Amino acid sequence: MPAEAKNKPVYVISVAAELVDMHPQTLRLYERKGLIKPGRSGGKTRLYSERDIEHLREIRRLTQELGVNLAGVEEVMRLQHELDDLQGEFEAEIERIEDEIRSQQRTKALPAPDDPRDRPVYVISIAAELVDMHPQTLRLYERKELIRPGRSSGKTRLYSERDIEHLREIRRLTQELGVNLAGVEEIMRLRQELEGTRSRMEGNVRRIQQDITERMTQWRELPPAKAETDGE
């Protein structure tokens, strides 16, 4: 289904509640918590889209199947909304570039820089000290695939600045918000998906910009067409 159709508000609250097997009052609670943002008709009636229905089903899975508390659900849905927004930004950027192609405006390709945050530099003892955790806790999170440190040639774990950021986020979720490990796994999976999607989007945009630049250069270097001579 196209993204635009998924965002079209069509279901009144009673129908939406039936589709996701929830009480309408539960949907109102989730709206107050900012977990779901239904549209409104001209008469201020709540109208839910297909994407809202997907989000509500995800909330039900997190709470009922995984036992994630509302604080954890809020984190998951915030990331999910960011993913949705990123997809919209990507589509808008592609449309902008297509407009540039039509108007034949020259664009400058951007190089893909290496992000220093991904460079593995910290051994496990230093990483554990930086995030105020026991090294054994970092090993547990690695087994749970919440964190994926690099390895030296001698197989020593090496953590990057991005790994440190992720570990601090895990600590915040578990210690400050009381999110269980199942919830943390969902949140970190979405964080990694968000970062991967953003990276792929930026890479795709750079490739498109590079293609535009090369095409513009080729067009400018084409020799002028020869005029037809009389009598031929």
UniProtKB/TrEMBL annotation:
Pfam families: MerR_1
Keyword tags: Coiled coil, DNA-binding
Residue span(s) of domain HTH merR-type: 10-79, 121-190
SMART domains hit by this protein: HTH_MERR (SM00422)
A single GO molecular function term of this UniProt record: DNA-binding transcription factor activity
Coiled-coil residue windows: 76-107
UniProt-listed PANTHER family: HTH-TYPE TRANSCRIPTIONAL REGULATOR YFMP (PTHR30204:SF58), REDOX-CYCLING DRUG-SENSING TRANSCRIPTIONAL ACTIVATOR SOXR (PTHR30204)
Protein name: Regulatory protein MerR
Organism listed in the record: Deinococcus proteolyticus (strain ATCC 35074 / DSM 20540 / JCM 6276 / NBRC 101906 / NCIMB 13154 / VKM Ac-1939 / CCM 2703 / MRP)
Lineage, broadest ranks: Bacteria, Thermotogati, Deinococcota, Deinococci, Deinococcales
